[in-house]
Write a sequence for this structure.
């Protein structure tokens, strides 16, 4: 099996960072230096993304299994968006190894359902999937724009996101479609109570992709959870407010 790309830096407790859909480990660059003063960082490129492009992406379970091969013996796992779903699965499967979770702009259920109002419209996600096949770069640009919506200084944050994502070789269209399929079908709500580890939730008040109500709901499901809300912030709090983001880790 092809190995995932991992960048390791810093000293301290092991902290694994998992990026979101269509991204790569470089998205953590804004916060890596200050975090590495307190933690040993493991920045992983998920299957099909970044320098792990040779690894096919097929399912959430496959992502989890490949990430497990690169986990330290005991660690904290921080996941953003899709990476948050991977982090939750890891905590369920490896309760003895995952000491704590940090879930950034994450949700157990990405799309709206009859009993879940705090997700993306199914039609919106379907349109993203359709447009990927016709205009790959423009669809990625639209997704990046959606990430900063509702946040402060959107022009600056969007420019940083574009530089980080589009300056790297983006994932193949098949990888992006597979990732959207995971987001379309994954629903971890019924399993969340399996997670007994402490959980830190970090969420933008104005997140246009994952409504803040999803984070508030998750806080009630976990036995040990703290919720840090960022005002005037969208889907990428560590881009919008890097210093505030790093300060959240003081409680760990």
């Amino acid at each position: 099996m092809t190995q995932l790309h991992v960048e390791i830096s810093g000293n301290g407790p092991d902290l694994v960072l998992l990026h979101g859909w269509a991204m790569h480990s470089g998205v953590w660059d804004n916060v890596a230096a200050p975090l590495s003063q307190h933690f040993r960082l493991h920045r992983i490129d998920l299957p099909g993304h970044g320098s792990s492009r040779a690894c096919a992406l097929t399912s959430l379970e496959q992502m989890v299994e490949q990430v497990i091969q690169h986990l330290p013996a005991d660690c904290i796992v921080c996941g953003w968006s899709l990476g948050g779903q991977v982090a939750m699965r890891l905590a369920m499967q490896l309760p003895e190894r995952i000491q704590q979770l940090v879930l950034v702009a994450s949700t157990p259920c990405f799309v709206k359902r009859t009993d879940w109002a705090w997700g993306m419209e199914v039609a919106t996600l379907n349109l993203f999937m359709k447009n990927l096949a016709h205009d790959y770069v423009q669809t990625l640009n639209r997704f990046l724009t959606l990430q900063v919506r509702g946040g402060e200084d959107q022009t600056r944050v969007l420019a940083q996101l574009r530089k980080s994502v589009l300056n790297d070789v983006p994932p193949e269209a098949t990888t992006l479609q597979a990732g959207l399929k995971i987001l379309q079908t994954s629903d971890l709500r019924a399993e969340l109570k399996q997670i007994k580890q402490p959980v830190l939730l970090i969420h933008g008040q104005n997140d246009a992709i994952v409504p803040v109500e999803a984070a508030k709901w998750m806080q009630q499901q976990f036995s040990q959870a703290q919720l840090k809300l960022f005002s005037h912030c969208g889907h990428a709090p560590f881009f919008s407010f890097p210093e505030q983001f790093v300060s959240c880790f003081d409680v760990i």
